[in-house]
Amino acid sequence: MPPILWRRVIILLLGLAPFAWISYATVTQQLGADPAKTIVLFTGEWTIYSLFFTLSVSPLVRFLKWRWLMPHRRMLGLFALFYALCHLFSYLVFILGLDMSRFFSELAKRPYITAGAPAILILIALGVTSTQGMMRRLGKNWQRLHKLVYLALFLGWIHVLWQVRSSYFDAVLYGVITAALLGIRAYWRWQQLQKRRAKAAMMNKSHT
User: Fewest CB atoms within 10 Å of the CB: 93, 158, 176, 205?
Assistant: First the structure.
């Protein structure tokens, strides 16, 4: 197979490995005293890990010249959606027993769920529009829409932060990574604006 196909197979297997492990641990009853909570937390963690991996692609391409990563960014993003749906489904089934009235009550009562729900909706929208056909249909709006992944990551971090009961270690670590990934992009955007202003200033001088 061509190298790109080998890489896709490897990424697919690595991406599914956490799901395979949690499934095996569930079946073999290795999840401790509260398996439902363990499953929900595990799938939530892998949602945010997958977002970290996805948003690390552009910096790695830019700084390390790992251009081979670019064709695989969509797959990484789809894994974020996959684990987000697993997270939501496991919460609805194992915690709430598919009681939707209780879900809406929890949505209004618990701020961390209020933050997490729109993040999942964003990931669903990005997953649905990730195909080549949707890229052609949406045109420039496709890029605008997919920049919402930054908001999804931020809301995901807020979702983690607002659940903290004792140790803030994970929340702080996730916050540092989130700030780095979003800060890099803010700096790149600032550079683009500076270049545009400099170009506009030079054009104005040439016309005077």
Answer: 205
